[in-house]
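The instructor's notes for this session suggest beginning with a concrete chain rather than abstract definitions. Hand out the sequence below and ask the class to guess, before any prediction is shown, which regions might be ordered.
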Amino acid sequence: MEKEELKILAQNLANPQGEKGIEIGEMMNATNISMTLETIRTLSIDDGQQILEIGHGNAAHLKSIMSLAKNLRYTGIDISETMHNEAKRLNKEFENQTEFVLYEGKKLPFQDETFDKIFTVNTVYFWENPVEFLNEICMILKDDGTFVLTFGQKEFMEKLPFTEYDFTLYSNSEMEELISKSHFKRMKTSEREEEIKSKTGNETLRRIYTILTIKK
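After discussion, reveal the predicted structure:
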């Protein structure tokens, strides 16, 4: 891909827009689905819990969450109006149990200690002030709640040509240091490997990613 194409891809991975954004959302859901499902498993969701996903994309995975327990309430928050609309369109069957919120990417517009479980997959690269944002997450998580943060490791991510455009990449140690500067007190790190198709072509890549289970 040419430099300009890579820039457009990077922009749409951060904030999908319009028809191209809908395509990118479908591709992201397909390439990230195993990361997302592993993250959801790590949450250990129970009946009646309030779940928040930060950066839900098209939320085609919502069905998997709703099948795990009874009487769940899911809230998805995203900076992309395109993904906000797509998620609502694709998940009409769950509209009585879900809320999709559009926001500017900095302040999380929720009351303190609202959610039992919070998760995010492949969004941390775009956080402007990561420690402040972690503290925002900490405030809206219940005292006995769990936050799961999943990201591709720097060693893998820096091999992808589009990540040089406005992505901030992290190794495990860099991410753990970041979290230690926030109000969160405990974390558990686990690594996964998988084979995925490249976003820029048909070649297969071996992705190494990390799931961090974080508590107050």
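Then share the key points. Residues 18-43 form the longest helix (26 residues). Residues 3-215 form a domain with the Rossmann fold fold (CATH 3.40.50.150).
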